[in-house]
Design brief:
Elements: H1 5-16, H2 23-47, H3 49-53, H4 59-71, H5 78-90, H6 97-107, H7 114-126, H8 130-139, H9 149-159, H10 163-166, H11 169-178, H12 185-197, H13 201-213, H14 220-232, H15 236-252, H16 259-271, H17 275-287, H18 294-306, H19 310-322, H20 329-341, H21 345-357, H22 364-376, H23 380-392, H24 399-412, H25 415-427
Helix pairs in contact: 2-4, 2-5, 7-8, 7-9, 8-9, 9-12, 12-13, 12-14, 13-14, 14-15, 14-16, 16-17, 16-18, 17-18, 18-19, 18-20, 20-21, 20-22, 21-22, 22-23, 22-24, 24-25
The structure holds one DNA strand of 10 nucleotides.
DNA sequence: CTAGGGTTAG
């Protein structure tokens, strides 16, 4: 028969208890006294700030710890040790933690709560002590604690922080099999998040494959994460090829993209000058029953206009209105940009009043776009008028505004006016 | 809790 240590301990307590009370009451008093001891310890740690800064006295906290518990004639609690460890970490005395650990291992009997050890793994990791973190992980059973995926995730998190320690991950995954810890979806999330963060998206996709092969099922969060990382990937040779094919692949495996997923993809496609692909993605959304919001439409509209397909742009604008979406400044600016590119300045200027009627205030960008277009067709006086209107409406100008105006004036050969404007710029120190 | 994500030009 297996006798669990906890039942052994309670038998021992019943036999040797000091108070003629029930076990419940005894426990209560014990907890109370331990709390008092912990309070004393915390006070003594807080009361000596000058010693905290003094690294020559590393034993202070630790001896205070022992002392406060012996003076209350009770055993230190795991929480007390936790406090000591946290304090040592906070005061950059991580190198003194091993002594504390030794004491927990050899002098104490309690079952150490796993979170304390898991947290220490992270402390070690952030202090750059990868070796200590790994050692601690392997040593967890010595602290009368059964390591679970919780500790493993902490370790994986730490290992994934640098490319150097990343190499140790496969070894640790094997090791945890021996320790009988089964990876959970959360572990994969830790790995994939970290891999994406350090730009190792290829490895992240590999992890996703392992996950599927090991029967964990496809995790939507992992998919979204990899997808958005691919969209942000700077190596275009890689991402241009991957983004859509990756999306296609995970969709086949049962992933249903959310609006955010599509937003990421559309933003990527537009940035890459693939406006038509962005439009396709938008259609795909609708097919899948997701109503694209105004941001999606604005991005696609931008992409289409960049391609010069103004007919499609108009269609798209109509469509969004039909869907009941309300265009905002971003949308109007994109649209106005399209009108300006077609040299349809008239329509662009009319948009200002339309916007105002619809309760959408034109902003600096709106005016800059139109100023540029007006100057382009050589209507300097109209541009000046527009600038006055800007001021009137309380829309401040920026250096871009002045550059546009100077450009216009020089283009016209109006050097005098340009000089006047130049002085105004110098006055405002907007150079 | 319903944001965030999106607009000029260099």
């Amino acid at each position: 028969m297996v006798i669990r240590p906890s039942s052994l301990r309670s038998k021992f307590l019943r036999k040797h208890r000091k108070w003629p009370t029930s076990a419940y009451s005894y426990k209560w008093q014990q907890t109370f006294i331990q709390n008092q001891a912990l309070q004393t310890l915390k006070q003594s740690a807080a009361a000596t700030p000058q010693e905290k800064e003094n690294n020559d006295r590393p034993h202070h906290l630790f001896s205070a710890h022992v002392h406060s518990f012996t003076s209350y004639n009770c055993d230190p609690t795991p929480e007390a040790y936790h406090f000591v460890i946290k304090t040592l970490a906070k005061t950059s005395q991580v190198h003194h933690i091993p002594r504390v650990l030794d004491r927990i291992e050899f002098a104490e009997k309690f079952e150490t709560p796993e979170y304390i050890l898991a947290q220490l793994i992270k402390i070690y990791g952030f202090a750059g002590r990868i070796g200590d973190a790994i050692d601690l992980f392997c040593r967890i059973p010595k602290f009368r604690c059964v390591p679970s995926v919780y500790s493993l995730n902490s370790l994986l998190y730490v290992l994934c922080r640098s490319s150097e320690s990343l190499k140790l991950v496969p070894e640790m995954l094997l090791k945890c099999q021996v320790m009988n810890i089964r990876l959970e979806v959360s572990s994969f999330r830790v790995l994939i998040t970290a891999l994406c963060r350090i730009g190792k998206i290829g490895y992240a996709i590999q992890m996703l494959n392992y996950m599927i092969n090991d029967g964990y099922g496809l995790d939507a969060r992992c998919c979204s994460l990899i997808l958005s990382s691919l969209c942000e990937e700077k190596d275009l040779a890689l991402s241009n090829f991957e983004v859509l094919s990756f999306l296609e692949a995970i969709k086949k495996m049962g992933f249903t993209p959310s609006m955010m997923d599509y937003s990421d993809v559309i933003r990527f496609l537009v940035k890459e000058g693939r406006g038509l692909d962005a439009l396709d993605a938008l259609c795909q959304m609708k097919v899948e029953g997701i109503k694209p919001d105004i941001v999606c439409y604005t991005m696609v509209l931008h992409g289409i206009i960049a391609k010069g397909d103004y007919g499609k742009a108009d269609e798209l604008f109509d469509e969004l209105l039909v869907l009941g979406l309300v265009p905002d400044v971003y949308t109007y600016n994109v649209y106005i940009n399209g009108l300006c590119k077609q040299n349809n300045v008239e329509a662009g200027l009319n948009m200002i009043s339309s916007m105002e009627e619809l309760g959408c205030k034109p902003n600096l960008i709106t005016y800059n776009l139109l100023l540029k277009a007006v100057n382009k067709i050589g209507e300097i006086s109209q541009a000046k008028e527009l600038m006055t209107k800007m001021n009137l409406k309380g829309v401040g100008v920026n250096s871009q505004t002045y550059r546009i105006m100077l450009d216009g004036l020089f283009h016209k050969g109006d050097v005098d006016e340009a000089c006047v404007l130049m002085e105004e710029i110098l006055d405002k120190q907007l150079c």
